[in-house]
Amino acid sequence: MIWFIKIREAKKEMTSQKFHFIDLKYKPRNDLICLFKIQPNKISMEKAANTVALESSVGTWTDVEKGKEDYVEKIKARVFSIKGNYVKIAYPSELFESNNAPNILSSIAGNLFGMKAVRNIRLEDVSFPKQILKGFRGPKFGIEGIRKIMKIPSRPLIGTIVKPKLGLNTMHHAQSAYESWIGGCDIVKDDENLSSQKFNEFKERIARTLEKSYMAEEKTGEKKGYLVNVTAETNEMIKRAQLVQDLGGKYVMIDILTSGWAALQTLRQANFKLAIHAHRAMHAAFDRNPNHGISMMVIADFARLIGVDQLHIGTGIGKLEGSIKDIEELEEEIENKNIKAAKNRLEQKWGNIKSVLAVSSGGLHPGHIPFLVKHLGKDLVIQAGGGIHGHPFGTEAGAIAMRQSLDAVLKKIPLKEYAKTHVELEEALRVWG
Ligand code: CAP
Ligand code: MG
């Protein structure tokens, strides 16, 4: 009989501990909040949510001896909302080292993606409390700072990526950049996979290309930016950024995901007088599956928190996946000061963290500019690689056509109309529509 009572008591205790990490009355304060979309794997949503919260904070698959101490209990994660597949979890700030992005992600976006308890799980959004915002610098320049550097008070910036993306020698690379600038591009960037290959070594390339940018500034009377890709092993990356600064550059560019969050923090904390352009190569490995992985919103949030000045967010019309609605939401997330909650969004007050300038890129040409400005406004960098260098009259004409298209949009003249008196635009529309 005693034996039976003992088993019954043990079972009771197990059920009472089962959803130990769920507290639907909990009101988050200084907590980091995560919004997850969860598809449980043959268990209830409560159990799946509980498992996510424990695995991503103080728990593991079974109770451990010291796991019930009061001071541990106090900082556990709490599931405080379950609506359909959407689950909100609050993580007390004390769970994290306050200025360490990889550390935060190792908890909230770590083991949980591989747990058998979930068939699919997607981290849709995060919201940082003041305590965590304080640990990071955010953008050094942001939208206003970039507009000052470039002396472009209100219009969108026009940019290009030197193409072909790999293979060009240094001389042709610098020449292509020059033609783009004098044609009307404000910025020219290296492609994401160009670093210091034998055919186009870093030092030589930046010296030659920056020189051309100064020549183009003299010729056009406009400011010209060269976005130098410094993506490399971190010590080397810092040396390269230093060189860009020493040679009078305005920008560096980094592939934030292939380099990693620690590398981005290192670059930001080095505090160069250089704007940081963030390329997001590899993002679709995390965000393309709508049910599993990490959304671009979360990637954008961390990029803003750490402090990039410009970030690729997609186009809604070019060659790469992404609906315009998603891209509009991303732009709000990186440019607005306060973000309102929605079904798939969390509230965020960015406090002193500056706004990041959105970059639209990928399969763009002059014919796309009316759509982009209509949906994404003027605080935007519009970049075209193939859509400039593939112009039948050459790179300079391609850049001219982009600026003509932008002029037409700003003057509210239909492109077809404007093209009648602007031959480069006319030709671009003829080939690409
Ligand atoms: C664009 C691009 C950019 C993509 C990145 C490319 O070239 O240089 O890397 O825009 O995508 O390599 O594809 P094109 P996203 O203009 O010739 O297409 O901005 O979506 O991150
Ligand atoms: Mg590219």
What does it look like?
- The chain is α/β, with parallel strands linked by helices.
- 42% of the residues lie in helices and 17% in strands.
- It has 19 helices and 15 strands.
- The protein has helices spanning 2-18, 45-55, 70-74, 101-108, 130-133, 142-150, 170-183, 202-220, 234-246, 256-259, 261-269, 283-287, 296-306, 324-335, 369-376, 386-389, 395-410, 415-419, 423-432; strands at 31-40, 78-83, 86-92, 118-127, 157-161, 187-189, 225-229, 251-255, 275-279, 293-294, 310-312, 338-339, 348-349, 357-361, 380-383.
- The strands form 3 sheets. It has an 8-stranded parallel β-barrel, surrounded by 7 helices. Strands 2-3-1-4-10 form a 5-stranded mixed sheet. A two-stranded antiparallel sheet has the order 12-13.
- A hairpin with a 2-residue loop joins strand 2 (78-83) and strand 3.
- Helix 7 (170-183) packs parallel to helix 8 (202-220), helix 13 packs parallel to helix 14 and helix 17 (395-410) crosses helix 19.
- It starts with a helix and ends with a helix.
- Residues 10-17 have low confidence and may be disordered.
- Residues 161, 165, 191-192 line the site of magnesium ion.
